[in-house]
Amino acid sequence: MGFEDVAYRYAIKNAFLHAGKADLAAVVGKVIALKKDLDFVSAMPRIKEIVAQVNAMSFEQIKEEYEKFSETGYELKPKDKEEGLPPLDWAEKGEELVARIAPNPSSVMHLGHARQVIPNYYYVEKYGGKFILRFDDTDPKVKRPMPMQEAKKCYLEDLEWLGVKKISTIFFASDRIERYHEIIGKLFEMGKAYVCDCEPEKWRELTKNSKACPCRELSVEDQIAKWKKMLSHEFKEGQVVARVKTDLNDKDPSIRDWWLAKIVDNPDHPNPVTKGVHVWPSYNLASVVDDHDFGVTLIIRGQEHAQNATKQKWVADYFGWVYPHTITTGRIRLEGSLMSKSKIKAAIEAGELSGVDDPRVGTIQTLRRRGITPESLQKVILNLGINPNDSVISVDALYDANRKIIDPISDRVSFVEDPIQLDVQFSPRFEVKVPIHPDFPERGEKVFALSEGSQIFTVSKKELEKLKVGETFRLRNAYNAKLVDLKDKVAFAHFTGFEKINKIVLVWLLPEELVDAEVTMDDAEKVEGVAESFILEKKAGDRVLLEKFGYCIVDECSKKLVKLWYSHK
Fold first, then answer.
1. How far apart, in Å, are the Cα atoms of 486 and each of 305, 494, 516?
2. Do domains 176-285 and 411-568 have the same CATH topology?
3. Which of 157, 175, 235, 556 has the greatest number of CB atoms lying within 10 Å of its CB?
4. How remote is the C-alpha of 1 from its chain's centroid?
5. Rounded distance, CA 31 to CA 46, Å?
6. Cβ atoms < 10 Å from Cβ of 457
């Protein structure tokens, strides 16, 4: 097979998978893979011509060619990949699996949370384990939590959407302050903790050189007395900090005598049981205590928390606790989306974003509202595997996975942006039958009776302006016409025949069968136009394919205005 045949085949395939438009770079990649000895400098102009030829074809023609090639098979086929994540040896041997996620509820769930949720729950289902939701809300100052009921509601909604069917235990860490104080107190009694009142810079300089500060050497009795003063708020914020004794020669300075608890003078926390609490535990102390108390055996956490496992093991070892099996994963982000909670919050406060479900951010609420399915997100994240490498999720990969799921349930709807009336003269009487979905004839068809002599259509002015007067175009599923005049609010054309032509194809509506529509795009821009009244049969949450525009999800539906959110092509 010559390189031209390869280019044509893969241009057809790429165009079919991307709403009728092949990507040149993708086609070139396939040709390179199959024709390694080809002189690409001389071949490139011809490959460009082939891609342009395919992109000028109607989608019906592309589909016909795609199906023909699919029957004989493409030369380049991806290697079959084993589905799912690798088995866990310890779980295979019968050890109970108890997984947990521990989000800080200072904001809503985002893609980073999904990176932990999906593999955790995958293993829970695989081994019949338990899934725990622990709200890590013991920071009342820097990352102030949302109101508790609000946090619980939105996290449970997002978890259910992500596919979490059963949660064994749900709790807020802020409900367990007394338990954390109890464990820290025992560390003092064991001589494994101390209260430090050194200047931070002085302490850092000492530990950097593997030397103990004077506070560390005080007696157990003196340490306990100072701890009690912390609890009674005799010390104020910034004066002292409770620390656990670790190895001052650890090669990682951040492990050396990490902090257990600090004082916050004026905590602003939504949990009423924390009223009057001034000594707040560190993330690492609260985490290791809760993991032990709730029997957690599996932690899948971000690579940025790898050091925390080392820190937490110090406390676990002091008490003889078995530390959970730990897997670290790299960070992920969605190509083109904002994911930082602090940056999202700042942008919302500045009026740059509409909210946590703005289409430009990578929250679960946004993905859901845009019509991304949980199944496609699960597939993409599981395909990343469980490794410590940071990853950028390609929007193409996510959209490809999503398209395969939503296409069968997306009825076809005509949509026209920047509408203008088109009067086609000398038109024949003609009945147009358009299937609601081309792959499911049982869903029925839409029938349009076109008039003889003069037929008024609603079409896109922007599309018409691509034509020159005298140029022929095709009205989708109907017939051909030649543009004879284009004015500001109306255009005129003459009927020229029924034979399919490789020219511009216009989506059209009948003026008496349309409704105003607004599409919120992935960049938050609004595209206004009109859609066929068939869309009024849909409800919020239904998916449609706007012909030659893209997949969308209905956000609001009324006879006055239909609002949609754009998913992808």
1. 63, 12, 23
2. no
3. 235
4. 40
5. 12
6. 25
Dihedral of alpha carbons 182, 305, 298, 93, sign: negative
Are residues 86 and 126 in contact, defined by beta-carbon separation less than 8 angstroms? Answer: no
User: What gap in Å lies between CA 486 and CA 508, rounded to an integer?
Assistant: 16
| Residue 91 identity (one-letter amino acid) | A
User: How many Cβ atoms sit within 10 Å of the Cβ of residue 395?
Assistant: 15
The answer to whether 169 touches 132, Cβ cutoff 8 Å, is: yes
The owner of tokens 């050890």 is 95
| Cβ atoms of residues 434 and 477 within 8 Å | yes
Give me the DSSP letters along 371-417: T--HHHHHHHHHHH-S-S--EEE-HHHHHHHHHHHHGGG-EEE-EEE
Q: How many CB atoms lie within 10 A of CB 420?
A: 20
Residue at token pair 């430009």:
360
Question: At residue 463, what are phi and psi to the nearest 5 degrees?
Answer: -70, -40
- For residue 161, the model assigns a pLDDT of 96
Cβ neighbours for 177, distance < 8 A, ≥ 6 positions apart = 138, 273, 274, 277, 280, 281
Alpha carbon dihedral 186, 190, 192, 197, in 10-degree steps, equals 70
Could you read off the pLDDT of 55-77 as tens digits, one per residue? 999 988 988 888 887 766 665 54
Q: Give per-residue pLDDT as tens, 36-53.
A: 667 766 778 889 999 999
Secondary structure of 424-493 in HEC code, one letter for each residue:
EEEECCEEEEEECCCCCHHHCEEEEEECCEEEEEEEEHHHHCCCCCCCEEEECCCCEEEEEEECCCEEEE
Q: Which amino acid is at 318?
A: Y
Q: Per CATH, is 411-568 categorized as 2.40.240.10?
A: yes
Domain boundaries, the chain: 3-72, 176-285, 411-568
Name the fold adopted by 176-285.
Glutamyl-tRNA Synthetase; domain 3 (3.90.800)
Measure CA 284 to chain center: 28
In the beta sheet, which residues pair with residue 134?
171
20: alpha, beta or left? (left if phi > 0; alpha if psi -120 to 50): left
Cα–Cα distances (Å) from 216 to 203, 207, 219, 368, 401, in that order, read 11, 11, 9, 52, 56
pLDDT at 78: 42
Give which of 410, 411, 414 is closest to 531, Cα–Cα: 414
First to last CA, the chain: 31
pTM attached to this predicted model? 0.79
Q: CB of 464 within 8 A of CB of 422? A: yes
